[in-house]
Amino acid sequence: MKHVPVLLRETIDALQLKHGSNIIDCTLGDGGHTEAILKLTIPNGRVLGIDADPESLARAKQFLYSEAERVIFVRENFEHLAKIVSEEKFAPVNGILMDLGWSSPQFEERKRGFSFQNPDEPLDMRYAPHNDMKKASELLADSTEEELEHIFRIYGEERLSKEIAVAIKAYEQGINNTSDLVNIVLAVYRKKLKTDKEVPWVGGLHPATKVFQALRIAVNDEFGVIDRALPQAIEILAPGGRLAVISFHSGEDRIVKHYFKSLDKKTIRIITKKPIVASEQEAKENTRARSAKLRVVEKIY
Ligand SMILES: C[S@@+](CC[C@H](N)C(=O)[O-])C[C@H]1O[C@@H](n2cnc3c(N)ncnc32)[C@H](O)[C@@H]1O
Fold this sequence. Notes:
Elements: H1 8-15, E1 22-25, H2 32-40, E2 46-51, H3 54-63, E3 71-75, H4 81-88, E4 93-99, H5 104-109, H6 136-142, H7 145-156, H8 161-170, H9 178-193, H10 209-219, H11 222-236, E5 237-247, H12 250-262, E6 268-270, H13 280-285, E7 293-299
Parallel strand pairs: 1-2, 1-4, 2-3, 4-5
Antiparallel strand pairs: 5-7, 6-7
Helix pairs in contact: 7-8, 7-10, 8-9, 11-12
The structure holds S-adenosylmethionine.
Residues 3, 5, 27, 29-33, 50-53, 56, 77-79, 99, 101-103, 127, 225 line the site of S-adenosylmethionine.
């Protein structure tokens, strides 16, 4: 399954691409945004394409092969943006894109336990599976009840955070796969709602939705990465260059919004007073687009 790039036209417009622009795609994924960027920067515009996931990078290389000489592929965490740019001597930087989170093939096909809908997958959830970060199963085993409650509440806005954390810690067999975790969450909800329905849906959501989202964010320290990467992005942008960030979680969007607002108005112009969201048509065609928010700033000097 190919990832469908979200807010594609809006992002491309926001970056104000010109022939010869040098753009950094911090989250290359399947290369959908980069493909459009390459088209609009012909003949000599370049893209520095970063992704932490070796499988994403391999797929993007294949997909973009006809323009590969204009792309530098880097397998890294974009929290090291400044170092990557300096090592690759990529300058001037005319635009930067961060399209946060996961891509569809990661979610659906890579068997890393991102989705509660895929039974019996190992609970890994790392974007970069070969690094020394903890897998989700290790995080569950090593965290205290209070730490788990915090993760579910802050990153998932899960209303049964406490009850779920207690149930996880009481589960002595060890939680290794997606089904183990889903079953624990379902049992907590059944007890709370006093129902014996197999899946007690909550406001149209499967009860495990928020727990899985929260764990993924914690495993990859997603909020911390954005926090650390945004100042580097502003620093390396050339005058007139733009930074576009697409987020899918209210907590993420808050970090971006507050950071943009905190910047000196003599150096930065906020282009999106309100975030750009998907059109009705896009939201209808792509469920992932429904929660997307695009914020853009321009560096003045
Ligand atoms: C939403 S997808 C990007 C999709 C892409 N724009 C496209 O059109 O195909 C996000 C990608 O960012 C990568 N990613 C997430 N966090 C990352 C990080 N901290 N450093 C590097 N890559 C990351 C994921 O592995 C995933 O491939």
